[in-house]
Design a protein that fits this description.
Helix content: 10-25%
Number of strands: 14
Low-confidence stretches: none
Radius of gyration: 18 Å
Length: about 300
């Protein structure tokens, strides 16, 4: 079996809080990305809604237009800031997500953008599964009151390392998405996400480890830092989990950068020891990755 991760990769997750000033958010983000780059990170991940407060009341106010691509600086200052920053850092940079407005459909989306070390846009991912929950007495939230979902699985090759999968927050609760990505050759599942103080302690680490265990790949979750002044309290605890479902590194609640060294051969070693990929019974049940899967919007 050819190695899915072809070279050692230092991954950085930047856990940072976003306030109401977008320009300040981008300025603060730049400093932390350059810090991660100076520490040797080749892939740097930002949280969900890193350039704005998270919440249905905020999405339209902070939304930027990304299409047609590339947008102008006036249409999307965040796009241009990320492109320049990726080139300055000489690293792959995942802008965890930003609110997007699509003029063609007049809809809003929650969208991640991945840039190359040369500052070129490699991929976007619109959040597929919207965060609509109702836990009486604890939390009610409906992203679908404002946002529309994306319509594709997002797999991206990042030479010379291999293939990664992009998803956002609530997407992690749907194991089919992770299974497709892993069976199509992803070595790493990336989930920028803003779990809250109810769902965070219940399911954040559990979901990360479950997706790693099911698929025997690396999994990374990047959260905003907790901000007591914000309307929505993020859980924090950004983490990286290895193919054995062991937590490699975990942040606390505040602002910090956590790093993990991803090693070639670890996925294959895990799969040799517990050979799920040879033991699945696709004569009994279907292989979800071979069904009708959309890779384009």
């Amino acid at each position: 079996m050819a190695g899915l991760l072809q070279q050692p990769l230092k991954l950085a997750l930047i856990q940072i809080a976003a306030g109401p000033d977008k320009a300040l958010n981008l300025s603060r983000t730049r400093l932390r990305v350059l810090e991660a780059s100076a520490a040797g990170a080749s892939l740097i991940v930002l949280p969900e809604c890193f350039n704005s407060p998270y919440g249905c009341a905020h999405f339209p106010t902070y939304a930027e237009t990304l299409l047609p691509s590339p947008p102008t600086a006036a249409q999307s200052p965040t796009f241009h800031a990320l492109a320049a920053l990726a080139a300055e850092a000489r690293a792959y940079l995942l802008g965890g997500s930003i609110p997007e407005y699509a003029p063609a459909t007049q809809r809003y989306h929650n969208t991640a953008l991945l840039f190359s070390p040369h500052g070129a846009l490699l991929a976007t991912h619109r959040k597929l599964h919207l965060f609509d929950i109702d836990l009486p007495g604890r939390i009610t939230f409906r992203e679908s009151d404002v946002l529309s979902p994306g319509n594709k699985v997002s797999l991206v090759d990042i030479p010379p390392y291999g293939r990664v999968a992009l998803a956002i927050c609530y997407d992690i609760r749907f194991p089919e998405l992770a299974a497709i990505a892993a069976r199509k050759g992803a070595f790493l599942l990336l989930y920028p996400g803003a779990f809250n103080l109810t769902t965070g302690p219940l399911h954040w680490a559990l979901q990360a480890r479950a997706r790693a265990m099911d698929n025997q790949v690396y999994v990374a979750l990047c959260s905003p830092a907790r901000d007591a002044r914000a309307d929505y309290q993020a859980w924090g605890h950004s983490m990286v989990v290895d193919p054995d479902a062991a937590v490699m590194v975990e942040a606390g609640e505040g602002e910090e950068i956590v790093y993990a060294e991803l090693e070639p051969g670890k996925i294959e070693e895990t799969r040799r020891g517990i050979p799920l990929y040879e033991q699945r019974r696709f004569d009994v049940y279907p292989d979800v990755s071979e069904g009708k899967v959309r890779y384009e919007e």
